[in-house]
Amino acid sequence: MMKKILLVCLVCLSAFNLESFSQQISPSPEQIIALTAEWKGERFPDGRPKVSDEHLERLKAISVEEAWGILRNKGYNNQFENDWVILDDNEVMTGRAVTAQYMPFREDVDNLVKKIGKEEGRAQSGGTNSWPIDGLVEGDVYIADSYGKIANGTLIGDNLGTAIYSNSKRGVIFNGSVRDMDGLSKIEGFNLWIKGHDPSYIQDMMLTTINYPIRIGRATVLPGDAVLANKWGVVFIPAHLVPELVINAEFTALRDQFGHMRLKEKKYTAGEIDSRWSEAIKADFMDWLNKKKDLPMSKEELDAYLEDRNW
């Protein structure tokens, strides 16, 4: 009997500590570091991985299929979502994820969120949907799960859209909606991937967290993930996999470019190019590669990559 009482007390104490620990809008830097522990590079003051600007720029040239395939081979099966409404589907957006979670409105929870936000020094004028925007820095992509709500679920209009682009020089990805598409379309450089749009204002919903893991459709997104968004869909890439994914995808694109060229020249058959390459094709490819002037990676990166590559 005494053991049962002790166990109940421990459970209650653990629940109390967890409740106290979790009453914050954003995780502490230490919590984000623990959440993204496989990243070994530079970090932002909030703890998020700081994927390099160079890798984000190179990521723009990588296809969704190539990025998705590499992630699948690494065991990351839930990093892609499609079926978006896109403002400008001719543009590609890459960046670092800032995540936000919205839920259907519940007064007691919303009151607690606002109380904690006030204690944390967050803006008290306007709605809580401005809070994720206030912390954006250049290169960030604001990613929000608003549970697919369209009417009365519009997270931003052109005013907040202007603030987002001013802070991040990027756009947004929402499992939800926006208002004032005409105004948003006039913000030069701004883009969005959303599930719909509506003229209504946001109501009967609330912000709950910033920079915790969220779900976007069939994908799980962590703060600091690298984002690759184009007209074919969005891939959310764990930060620690970005350098390897980029050079793998770049090398595969070079192989494809060489293979297509040789097929057009009818130097090799489709079967020869579409299967394991012979030593003669490998030698031809390496000769072509060594003469190529516009490589997407440095010669040093390519040499290091080829040392470890198993044909």
Folded structure, characterized:
InterPro entries: RraA/RraA-like, RraA/RraA-like_sf. Keywords: Magnesium, Metal-binding, Methyltransferase, Signal, Transferase. This is Demethylmenaquinone methyltransferase-like protein. Its cofactor is Mg(2+). It holds the Pfam family RraA-like. With about 300 residues, this protein is an alpha/beta fold. The protein folds into 2 domains: about 55-235, 3-Layer(bba) Sandwich (Glucose Oxidase, domain 1); about 245-310, no CATH class. It is built from 12 helices and 13 strands. The chain has helices at about 1-20, 30-35, 55-60, 65-75, 105-120, 130-135, 160-170, 180-185, 240-265, 270-275, 280-290, 300-310, and strands spanning about 80, 85, 95-105, 140-145, 170-175, 175-180, 190-195, 195, 205-210, 215, 220, 225-230, 235. Strands 1, 2, 3, 4, 5, 7, 9, 12 and 13 form a 9-stranded mixed beta sheet that branches. A two-stranded parallel ribbon has the order 6-8. Helix 4 (about 65-75) packs across helix 9. The longest helix is centred in the last third of the chain and has 24 residues, at about 240-265. It is elongated. The termini are far apart.
CATH topology of the largest domain: Glucose Oxidase, domain 1
CATH architecture of the largest domain: 3-Layer(bba) Sandwich
Shape: elongated
CATH superfamily of the largest domain: Ribonuclease E inhibitor RraA/RraA-like
Radius of gyration: 23 Å
The computed structural class is alpha/beta
Could you tell me how far the N terminus lies from the C terminus, measured between alpha carbons in angstroms?
65 Å
Describe the main β-sheet briefly: 9 strands, mixed
Average of the residue pLDDT scores: 92
Provide a count of the helices: 12
Regions with little confidence, pLDDT below 50 for 5+ residues:
1-22
